[in-house]
Specification:
The chain has 248 residues and is an alpha+beta fold. The protein is 27% helix and 28% strand. The chain has one domain: Gcn5-related N-acetyltransferase (GNAT) (Aminopeptidase, 3-Layer(aba) Sandwich), CATH 3.40.630. The chain is globular, with a radius of gyration of 18 Å.
Length: 248
């Protein structure tokens, strides 16, 4: 597998191309309002923490996004229950106020659809770790979205995340990548991302009817989506797993 990993400081010419890469994210994941408002700016403001992988022809085959915020600040010092969304808010609030960050936070790793299953996820997160260390951070956090939890949407996230194989590594493949790289599970973020929409919006995103109130099991979601027909709304509150990486 001949690829080259670079930070976006090293390859600013690729920034405009990163979001055009085909990936496997489900459409509903593009409709978190916090992400819609703040995520795009992360690449611009934290280029030193963003990474990209290219093949021998300089085509993008994977990318990873990270940012930084101050965790040792009044009102913080504990990992937030709102996980991914709150981390984005903290990072952008600190940027606006000129607060010096003390903690790096990985947001996502995306793999080109034609390169799935080749071990690139571990390569890319390793590159994020290296970028955060080079930027002077001793801690990298990640609100992790376990890759196989969608197969068990009714399972308790804390119980699921702490399942292990006979070798002691996590049962979930993505959590296992983090463990192999030195990551340690800290706690669950029960409301890491919240995505709401009208029933017609959810129908368009998922091709599911959404005609009855109650939990709806949507392919790709980690827990059921809650449908309220009388209010013409459905809400998905996704739990993630906070993982801490010591970079010292």
């Amino acid at each position: 597998m001949e690829i080259t990993t670079s930070t976006l400081v090293e390859r600013p010419d690729l920034i405009s191309q990163v979001w055009n890469m085909p990936d496997s994210w489900d459409e509903f994941m593009d409709h978190d309002p916090i992400a819609e408002a703040l995520f795009g700016a992360v690449v611009q403001h934290f280029r030193q923490l963003g990474v990209v992988a290219t093949d021998a022809n300089d085509n993008i085959v994977a990318h990873g996004t990270a940012m930084a915020f101050c965790l040792d600040c009044d009102g913080r010092r504990e990992l937030p229950d709102k996980g991914w969304d709150q981390a984005l808010i903290w990072a952008h609030r600190d940027l606006v106020r000129g607060v010096e960050p003390d903690t790096a936070c990985a947001l996502e790793v995306s793999i080109h659809t034609e390169w799935l299953g080749r071990g690139l996820s571990q390569v890319m997160f390793g590159a994020i770790r290296d970028a955060a260390r080079s930027a002077g951070f001793s801690t990298l956090l990640a609100p992790v979205r376990p890759s196989e939890k969608h197969l068990e949407p009714d399972a308790d996230m804390d119980e699921y995340a702490r399942r292990t194989r006979s070798d002691g590594l996590p049962s979930d493949a993505w959590l296992r990548v983090h463990a192999r790289l030195g990551g340690v599970i800290e706690q669950i973020a029960p409301a890491s991302q919240t995505i709401s929409g009208s029933l017609d919006q959810w129908r368009a995103w998922t091709d599911i009817d959404f005609s009855e109130s109650g939990p709806v099991r949507v392919p790709g979601t980690l827990v059921p989506v809650q449908c309220l027909v009388s209010q013409n709304v459905a809400v998905y509150v996704e739990p993630n797993v906070w993982v801490r990486h010591d970079l010292t």
